[in-house]
Amino acid sequence: MSKFIDANMNKRAIAVFDFDGTLTSKDTLVEFIKYACGTWRFYLGFTCYSPIIVLMFLHLYPNWKAKEKIFAFFFKGWEYQKFKDYGEVFSLKIENMKKENTMNKLYTHMEKSDTIYVITASILEWVLPWCKKNGINNVLATRIEIDERGIITGRFSSKNCYGQEKVNRLLQVEPHRHTYTLYAYGDSRGDKEMIEFSDFGIYC
Hints:
By secondary structure, this protein is of the alpha/beta class. It has one domain (12-203): HAD superfamily/HAD-like (Rossmann fold, 3-Layer(aba) Sandwich). The strands form two sheets. A five-stranded parallel sheet has the order 3-2-1-6-7, sandwiched between helices. It has a two-stranded antiparallel sheet with strand order 4-5. The protein contains nine helices and seven strands, in the order βααααααβαβββαβαβ.
């Protein structure tokens, strides 16, 4: 039986897609930094934080903490409206980064009128505009903190949407797990818990 045929026709289907590396062929945080800050500053920042990045990949430093430090280096002190505007324009550039084989799976779920979520550790301000342009309204992503003056603090206002946090976020909005069949698409360690939680988990 095809994985796209629900064995229990009384259940609705939910399809959860990771973003970076799954719907896209590139890490959009890296590409956004290059776009918003320039290549020279990009290489400066990643050189400065290379020891932390190495420790992160060795699982000796928390993923969320490394990501927050890098984000703060580039964007702390930015006006939020400026950041949001950059995200809107950058979302158009993501069209050239789409991963066609996974996009085809997304279109299949759309044709079946399944409920679709993009759940990602990437930042909401460019993921959401891209998703809306592509007919996806349900987006759960990492959120950034903004102070009372509308300035980015460099911290996240939500947990980094990675690993178990992806499952937690889904259950916040879809708590009745027994009522739906869950398809999950991902490409990395950050998707492991969601894929294991699903009925049909697919690495793309």
